[in-house]
Design a protein that fits this description.
Number of domains: 1
Order of helices and strands: HEHHEEEHEEHEEEEEEEEEEEEE
CATH superfamily: Outer membrane protein transport protein (OMPP1/FadL/TodX)
Number of strands: 19
Helix content: under 10%
Oligomer: single chain
Strand content: over 45%
Radius of gyration: 21 Å
Largest sheet: 14 strands, antiparallel, barrel
CATH topology: Porin
Strand order of the largest sheet: 2-3-4-5-6-7-8-11-12-15-16-17-18-19
CATH class: Mainly Beta
CATH architecture: Beta Barrel
Length: 339
């Protein structure tokens, strides 16, 4: 919605406030075809090349070597009965290779969208609610690429620790929209480019058929300037999980966020459960899961995934996420190798 010609002084004051507002971005569920097919319950599974993202300590418990190339898309749509619906669009890609103690990776996450959260926060400080009709919420885009190495170490019987050390290049932009296609405008934003160093740490404990894991991502919380006074950051994220090998071909898992992530559509704190099952010979695998938010509205979503063996060592994989009108909607594909 364009600003009217009669834009009042109070609107101008709020506009200036909005342009100086710090914001955060990027959800956890952006990378990992197998993980997202299981609802995002993967911290205590993490036995393929995407372990460097989900829990690098899993490298010490997986196959002798693994590789993965994949991409996916996620849409978040939260109406919240606002004049301006909050939307977020996420694209993720991943390229990685690992052996039990070292992994090399390159992945990118591109998020763009519009927020009603900042606007609602400021409306609480004014006696004129009509300001919502004059000042649209800010739009923002943050595209990050992560290049790094993950190192794992066994510190005791069944106890593994690891770190992923990465150079993060971010392109960040923020502005007030001029039309009503907020997400499309956000995706077209020109941003300022900067770089930062970041670290992820993970722990995996293997107790027979049971595995327990915890991972902390974006521990240094790198921040990227947009060219104005707004900064977009990668918030610290901590997630814990448990998994059990019901049989050699069936794995069940449960994950829960220990921190709350602030994104433009609100606050996210997820709990997820998933199941993975393989036919003998591991030429066909199926997955299913569910995740919901424990912060604000639950917004439950169901997930499904499939692996099709091209050879005994390569699988073509995909996942699908669907929920209600205000739940996540996502899909992705990938090619995975394991030896």
């Amino acid at each position: 919605m364009p600003l009217p010609r009669c834009f009042p002084p109070i609107g101008l004051a709020l506009l200036l406030t909005l342009t100086a507002t710090p914001a955060s971005a990027q959800v956890f569920e952006a990378v990992g075809v197998r993980a997202l097919g299981m609802g995002g319950a993967f911290v205590a599974v993490a036995d393929d090349a995407t372990a460097v993202y989900w829990n690098p300590a899993g490298m010490a418990t997986g196959q002798l070597a693994g590789a993965s190339v994949e991409m996916g898309w996620l849409d978040i749509d939260v109406d919240e009965r606002s004049v301006y619906p909050a939307q977020r669009r996420v694209g993720g890609s991943f390229y990685g290779f690992n052996v039990p103690v070292i992994g090399l990776f390159y992945y990118g996450v591109d998020e763009a969208g519009v927020s009603t959260r900042e606007l609602r926060d400021r409306l609480r400080t004014t006696d004129d609610p009509r300001i919502a009709l004059y000042v649209p919420p800010p739009i923002a885009r943050l595209h990050t690429t992560h290049l790094g190495v993950a190192l794992a170490q066994t510190v005791g019987p069944g106890v593994h620790v690891a770190g992923a050390f990465k150079w993060v290049r971010g392109e960040a932009g923020s502005a007030l929209p001029i039309g009503q296609d907020f997400v499309d405008e956000a995706e077209d934003l020109d941003g300022r480019t900067s770089s930062a160093f970041d670290v992820d740490l993970g722990v995996m404990v293997a107790l027979g058929r049971v595995r327990l894991g915890v991972v902390g991502r974006n521990l240094l919380e790198p921040e990227f300037e947009t060219g104005g006074e707004v900064a977009l950051s990668l918030e610290r994220q901590v997630r814990a999980g448990a998994s059990v090998a019901v049989t050699p071909l069936i794995t069940a898992a449960l994950d829960a966020d220990l921190t709350t992530t602030t994104v433009h559509t609100g606050r996210r704190r997820a709990v997820a459960g998933g199941l993975e099952a393989w036919l003998p010979g591991r030429r066909l695998g199926v997955r299913g899961g569910v995740r919901a938010q424990t912060e604000g509205d639950a917004r439950p979503a169901g997930t499904a995934g499939l692996s099709l063996g091209l050879t005994s060592s390569f699988w073509l994989e995909g996942y699908l996420v669907r929920g209600g009108d205000e739940a996540d909607k996502a899909w992705g594909i990938g090619l995975r190798g394991g030896w």
